[in-house]
Amino acid sequence: MKTATQNLENDHIYILRLCDVMLAMVEKQSVDTSHFELVIDLIRKFADGTHHAKEEDLLFPLMGEKGFSSKQGPVAVMLDEHEQGRNYVKEIVEGIQKLKDDNTAALQSIYENMSGYAHLLQGHIDKENNILFRMADQAFSDEEQQNLLVQFTTIESSADEDFNPANSIQKIDNLSSIYLQ
């Protein structure tokens, strides 16, 4: 990968596939709690964990140094959408627990929040790939891009081994083979 933004866009390919899996799980009315829990782990450890750490801890602060406010404008919108996503995840987790307690009515909440999360992320990623990252590409020097990329590698290598990028991608591919056929 040449740039930090390309690294993030590569993550997006798999996060979008996970969103497709989530929508397929809803469409197929999945009741498999182990699959729901795996989706939550992938979100928390890969999408929100590793990927959002690269954005929130490194990319966005560097953009702040370049004049992009975290209180308003594109970075602020991205941060707000990250929080919206976390709220959907919280609701899904609560629904899974209720489902495990034999409350089958919780499926509706799981489905609604999975759909909400997936649709939010699809739009969010489109904005990042086509607007925010292009702004970053314009604002950052080649050296800054390379320094970010090195820092991204550090975050990726410190991820939970079961959910490092390579293993997360494999888990997403496995779910895809079940739900996207």
Structure description:
This protein has 181 residues and is an all-alpha fold. It has one domain: Up-down Bundle (Four Helix Bundle (Hemerythrin (Met), subunit A)). Helices cover 82% and strands 0% of the residues. It is built from 6 helices and no strands. Helix 1 runs antiparallel to helix 4, helix 2 runs antiparallel to helix 3 and helix 2 packs across helix 6. It is elongated and about 55 Å long. The protein starts with a helix and ends with a helix. The relative contact order is 0.19. The mean pLDDT is 96.
Q: Strand share of the residues?
A: under 5%
CATH topology: Four Helix Bundle (Hemerythrin (Met), subunit A)
Number of strands: 0
Order of secondary-structure elements: HHHHHH
CATH architectural designation = Up-down Bundle
Main sheet makeup: none
The gyration radius over C-alpha positions equals: 17 Å
Salient structural properties:
elongated; Four Helix Bundle (Hemerythrin (Met), subunit A); mainly alpha; 181 residues
What's the quick description here?
By secondary structure, the chain is an all-alpha fold. It is built from 6 helices and no strands.
Write the layout of secondary structure elements.
Blueprint: H1 4-27, H2 33-65, H3 74-100, H4 106-139, H5 142-157, H6 165-179
